[in-house]
Amino acid sequence: MTKAYLNVRNLNVSYGSTTAIKDVSLELAKGGRLALIGMSGSGKSTLAMAIAGLLPKQARINGAIEFESRTPKLGSDIGVLFQDASGSLDPVMKIGDQIAEVAMTHLGMGWISARVHAAELLDRVKIPKALSRLNSYPHEFSGGQKQRIALAAALAGNPSILIADEPTSALDTVIQRHIVDVLDELVKDGGLTLLFVTHDIALASERADEIAVLYKGDLVEMAPAGQLLKEPKHPYTKALIDTYVSLEKPRSRRLPEITLEWQ
To answer: What's the rounded Cα separation, in Å, for the pair 184 and 115?
Structure first.
């Protein structure tokens, strides 16, 4: 049996009288890929940010979030990739310097070594002519390239787990494919553990080992991706699967919001 890298037990998150996460428990195996899915407001991003240790100070947290052997540090043990790459990157700082700073802070590298590390990471996330682009600024890249640069920065401290919060939702279908292919390679070749947030059942089913389904803060179902698609147990999961669109097919419109009578 694969040892759990992450163990969340009876986690509750609230803001004042509003409960965002209700008694959630789950495990993520080392080197595994877990997708958190659900509509907006389901609590998936709150859960991911709780695991990353990035919830705002006003959040009240109860329960346990335990990692394999010790308390991890953001940057060196946990990398985070956000939805908005432009918000993650400093617009007036060269991309090579931004990535190198992370390596210097968390790996103790000198400046030259950190810049070499930055070029290697840019090449790893498939930025063309990576070495020559170290002195470029974020505005000189496309949206998909900026997301890959943000990914390189998230990986610069050599984390063992990457938490990706809807990293492709702002990108078109073709660019989505490029990003998720890169993430897949990092997991398969680098032993990275991946927790990613999405409202997209297609992305989750094609790229995750396991899927956890959240609805209004409740974890209503969690199962291996193939099993969950074939035999969903919960009405909400069944409704999500009914909206399934393959990543190979471009979308012509937004999916309708799911409304259910049960609680």
So the answer is: 25
Exposed e or buried b for every residue in 164-187, given b needs 16+ CB within 10 A? bbbbbeebeeebbbbbbebbeebb
Answer for the pair 103, 117: CB distance below 8 angstroms, yes or no: yes
Q: Render pLDDT for 171-204 as a digit per residue (tens, 0 to 9).
A: 777 777 778 888 888 888 878 999 999 888 888 8
Residue 246: burial class (beta carbons within 10 Å; 0-12, 13-18, 19+): exposed
Judge contact between 106 and 74, C-beta under 8 A: no
Extract the residue ranges of the chain whose pLDDT is less than 50: 1, 245-247, 249, 252-253, 255, 263
25-52 tens-digit pLDDT: 999 999 999 999 998 889 999 999 999 9
Rg (CA), the chain: 18
Q: Are the C-beta atoms of residues 232 and 241 closer than 8 Å to each other?
A: yes
Q: Three-state DSSP class for 143?
A: helix
Q: Is the dihedral of CA 231, 10, 6, 159 positive or negative?
A: positive
CB 51, CB 195: distance < 8 Å: yes
